[in-house]
What we know:
By secondary structure, the protein is of the alpha+beta class. The relative contact order is 0.10.
Amino acid sequence: MEPPECPVCLQPFDCEFTIPRVLACGHSVCESCLIDLPKPSFPRTLRCPACTQLVSFSHPSKLPKNIDLIRISTPLLQSNPVSKPKTLDFIPNLWSREFSSNWKDWIAPQDTISIDAGKVVNSTTSSKCSMKRNQNVSLFKLGSFSYIHSDEHRFKYSYLAKTMWILFEMGDGALAELELILRSSSMEYRICTACGLWYNNQDDSLYLVCEKKQTNLNNVIAKVDISSFAMIGMELCETVSCLHDVGLITGCTSLSCFGIDDFGHVFIDLNEVLMVGGRIQNLFTEAISFPQNEDCKRLVSKEIDAYPSLEVLVEFVKKQGVDMESTCAVGHGSDLWSLACILLLFLLGKSFAEEMHEFLSSYILKLVNGNACDCEGLHVALLDKISALLDSRLDSDYVLLKALLCKCLGHDPGTRPLVDDVWKCMRVLIISPKFDVTVSTERKTTSGSTCHCLLLGDLLWSSYKTNIVDDKKDMVNNLKEEILVAESDVIESVRKNSLTCTDLKGHLDCISGLAIGGGFLFSSSFDKTINVWSLQDLNHVHTFKGHEHKVMAIVFVEGEVPLCISGDNGGDIFIWGIKLPLGEKPIKRLNEEKDWRYSGIHALAAVSGSEFFYTGSGDKSVKAWSMHDYSLSCTMNGHKSVVCALAVCNGVLYSGSWDGTVRLWCLSDHSPLAVLGEEATSACGSVLSLAAHANTLVAAHENGCIKIWNKDVPLNPISAHSSSIFSIYMEGQWLFSGGWNKTVVVQKLSSGDESQVDITEIGSIAGDSVVTALHYWQKRLFVGHADRTIKVYSSGG
Length: 797
């Protein structure tokens, strides 16, 4: 038989080197391990490595030695493992913690942008999303969140949850493209900054937000001489090259896609590129719907204000369902076509625009009618016309420039020059070659297969994609209904807003507490009664009467004889036996001693199978009562005001008080363990409710603040409510809270490594009255209100 070992270092106990010291929970750990164990944030405490219970601790020398373990040779009893969190099917849980962590920092707050002004109205800065006040922005719609609106009280998704829904349903391809755009803008200054993502509650749509400059190339096209043309040409080449360096190609641009920054450099707006793609997409949809109509040609000629390459046009037709073979691949050369068109527009002006519009309208009509073989003649005729226009505009000194621009409009993108070649040609117009010693002769070669084309990507062609919007009126008014795919009936019912609600009526005053056990729902009220409801059909089955004061708290205790314990503000404690048939009188009535300052029982807590139940009192104390003879066993003092909330978890009793603090007590000997919140009691106000589950403690405060401790480490406070929170309930990773604002807020706590926790507000359920009590049981949420009603929410069929 092996000697007993330390549960931390696994070394056998002895009286010299591995001396066993007994913790308050009864487990023994060697002295050296007790010194080296990480200490919780709570002062003068320690988590037992065997059972994880929080116990008092200052130094190993102050703990007794376990003489029996030194003398005998029996193994240590192992503690029962902590039970896993229960699965909650009431709320959608589609995205992972990793998915949320990856995207949440890109999301701008709800009140950041004004669509009417097209500006940022409230600045925001995070690790990824950054917007400055009064910054001009452009918006590109990524998708819409659609759900059935109802005048009844149903689940309403939060701002963040709606955003995550849309992102989650976009698919891997669209998300990868979106992430590429967001990150690329931060890598290259020639790409307009992508500020982040923003959800517009007016049209329930998610937008990509990009910085927008007021000056674009449209403003300078009429003022260009040959020298200015060359400077703009170099800037455009450098911008296109930077775009290619980050793995992006556009496939089509227009003058509106390019702007000029404060230093005179040209940049590209990817939001505008996507909007141009949306206009071409809509144009092809209409052209294909009536390909034989001559009005379509006039529509195309009027609407085209961009210059897509020929191979991109073929891909657009194929994506619209027209069967067609393509011999040319979309790549870097596709952007050379658009670049040359913009340069020609600067040189030739209106005459080039008319010729190009005539060519594109005829080319598109032949493609959609399946006459691709006739397109070659159109292309040859276009090159002849452009060559003639260039001859009339430029003299014999610019032969190389004319040849290069015509080569950029070649039918095969593989024969088009590199963007470096165009840049060098533009530079020659400014600097004589014999003095141009800084230009590298090395040609940069790139492969189009390594680039992503925005006009052919999933952001523009996702099956769920709503219409593209590019003006303020469309941003507010245009919305297509979208159906998001759910993965379970319960989640589907929540998404469709088919959450059913049943009202339980019978009390004559405010609901003060809810408890569940033995197949019943117990509700206490200021009307001095406890109503009993069947959980099977939610019918009222009994009423416990006897209290002479308002019933403030209630708790159910499982045992050989199940018990319901209730306490009132007069100091009376009634213990009711839950055995059919239910009796009219309590099996025991207790009463606390009180003085003129006393205000009775405010909170109750108990653990099934425990020897005690606990009361929080108006005399600032927490009392432990024996479950055997119902006598007062212990009084725990320390709070400076009314104790109004109690919770029990993992061998620790938590008490919350109007003094703004939470105190921790050891269940085994009722000794004090720690005090939380002493440093900021005035900031958050009174503690009004507590919840504890596994390693997480949650405290709700008078000012609407929720404080959370995970594995004894405090997290950043959250403000899901703007006013007092009267009740909070925790089930697994889900947190329900409600109070003065008449709304139940649902939040998800996703645990990561060590003590890290992500807190996401999923949504809310609006009510007609102040929320005073909460409980969750088997896919049903029970909400007690100040208007005497209890609402039971469950997933509809």
